[in-house]
Amino acid sequence: MTAPLRVAIAGLGTVGGHVCALLEKNRTLLEQRAERPVQLVGICARNKKKARPFTRTTIPWFSDPCAMIDETNCDVAVELIGGEDGIARTFVEHALNKKCSVVTANKALLAKHGKHLFPLAEKQGCALAFEAAVGGGIPIIKSLRESLSGNHIYRITAILNGTCNYILSQMRAQRRSFQDVLEEAQRLGYAEADPSVDIDGFDAAHKLALLAALAWGTLDIDSLTIDGIRTITAEDMALSEKMGYRLKHIAQAYPAKTTIHQSVQTCLVRQDHALAHVDGVFNAVTFLSDFCGELTLIGLGAGGDATASAVVSDILDLARGSHEHPSRVVLTATPTFPQARIPTTETMPYYVRLHVDDRPGVLAEIATTLAHEHISIETAWQQATEQNDVATLVIITHPSPSPSMHKAFAAVGTLKPVRQAPCLLPIINA
Amino acid sequence: MTAPLRVAIAGLGTVGGHVCALLEKNRTLLEQRAERPVQLVGICARNKKKARPFTRTTIPWFSDPCAMIDETNCDVAVELIGGEDGIARTFVEHALNKKCSVVTANKALLAKHGKHLFPLAEKQGCALAFEAAVGGGIPIIKSLRESLSGNHIYRITAILNGTCNYILSQMRAQRRSFQDVLEEAQRLGYAEADPSVDIDGFDAAHKLALLAALAWGTLDIDSLTIDGIRTITAEDMALSEKMGYRLKHIAQAYPAKTTIHQSVQTCLVRQDHALAHVDGVFNAVTFLSDFCGELTLIGLGAGGDATASAVVSDILDLARGSHEHPSRVVLTATPTFPQARIPTTETMPYYVRLHVDDRPGVLAEIATTLAHEHISIETAWQQATEQNDVATLVIITHPSPSPSMHKAFAAVGTLKPVRQAPCLLPIINA
Question: Roughly how many angstroms between the first and final C-alpha of chain B, as a whole number?
């Protein structure tokens, strides 16, 4: 039997607590699978008195995370503190500088400082593993960098934020408003008191930036188009469903002409697409690649247990010595484009929903305005509303370039028969 | 730059040809990701003159696969010959005896001889990698043994045979008969001239046995219940759909009281289950585990390109030196049961379809016969047929133990009002 793998954990919130519980509960299994014991040599959190889901009486407690690394002589430092700067960053840098491998679930930290941290890990010959940072328990990172390692990645399409997906799923299933469901989600603990990081798309953006870094060697959070789910109404939810789609908060990235297109935004997804049926707190990703074709992974994107499973899979890889190439995030000055990528026309169909004066000639006026920007209509559907003189008009366009579509939509919004708060949403191709 | 990884490939059929094509086409990418060149030092197949999808003029050709291993001094021997015995077995054993790592897509060989081959690989300190053996391009093996390594596996539910899934999907979409779709599939090359291995469930059984070995340490193909799709009719396809289900050929395994339950058979799947929407040549697997919860992977289960992607992922793992624990298949004398597994009641609901005399009292007679075996009815649905005096009767039972259900079904079949060819199919719980 090889010597135990010495693990120290900083941060004992939901994820940290469940990692300790997993290490305790499945100790025998882990030892069998790693062919060596996995030993918790130190834990560290702010509040020593808080109740935790594991027995911690025998585990040395530290109040200073960096001192924990120095004093325990650990092999692996697990960062579950969170936050894109502050103690989390100090802790990770300290570990790597001490040639101690790091396992983290911190997408914000890696998305912001990965350009510095990944090369540091390489230089020090340490692992910087982060399976738990994207998609909770789903093996998204391992699948992308190991299972698809022989492939050029053409496109990544994903549902990466459980809060957004939960809210949109509830809005659909129960025909309720965004605000109503958000408040319930906050009461149930599915949404934070300050929900902005989730519902405005930043969390999904951090995760997508990491996937793009693995796929194409570029880590560029600043170039990401970020939008959330605040403006989605129950009406648009119902109308898009009537047209054969589901509304999902979609993270998508693909190599465009000279750059990597990266966006997170609410999109319409065809009802026969695998992602259309991913509901509640589940996350999912679809990779399109040259040899493997379409590969979809679906699982619990958050929660202590599932995320702990991912953290422990990284720890076990280290126990087995399987992190030969430490970070496996190869950042390049210029992105690695597929040599023979699919033709990205950079056009997509759009959903346009308007409230308009219910009188003859209005549809013609709108169609003419769209045609000025060469936007052509695939389907138009109009229905009277409870307000006598107002109709709801839904247009599905043919695939159109984003700039033309936004220009046309702005122009339509200024037309006299068009009432307030029109809605424009893309329909994903994949 | 490390020395090249020397790879020799035996078998240049669909998969072998596409592996060579991938190694050629994505050479630069592979070298970048492995941080060393992957060099094809030998190929071997029966027919030297056949057209292949890659440039082979510069690659040494061998007519004897074992001689290829001896003469090329390869690091990795790739077995793509196929067959559960014969040359494939000789080649794999020869490679392992020469301390050469093996990558194979051969589920039949491993299911039959794994009990001998996995320990041999361990003893020799070689890898015996087989990602391509189960689920084509889907990273099922890696996810189970690496990503879920911290988890007790409660249940595996999967669609593992592309031919079965293609035929069932076409029967549903086009309302056609089994025989009709099978003949078309044979013309299109989706089914073999002798389709038995696929449509009678043996291929799926081999794959499921390997997954059970990874999950619970027992490799026991003989204890598997194996059934196929030959008896499925267009009528049952339509009726099950009317009741809210899809018919799928399902491989399922879970720890029961004293053994591992393993079965492949056509089942009804709820329409809101992720596997219900996996159509055509796609495969999928859902793992249920203690910490990760429900994890579903969906992708191309067959085809040269996708399977080549999986073969190459194993080769790249070896190039990176990530096969520390060679086979990672730990076979134990007694299965490793989850300590706290979900209560497996070993009951499931059933679908019973009968053609019966269309007269009063028939349903009562059938219900009474079922009740004798304590089978209770959840839903019963009856419809007149084109034949004046015959009705179709569909019963969905409450969850029932398999032995009672089969006994009751046999008894119902002997009742006077019940016409020929009644149908009994399980409804999966997961």
Answer: 49
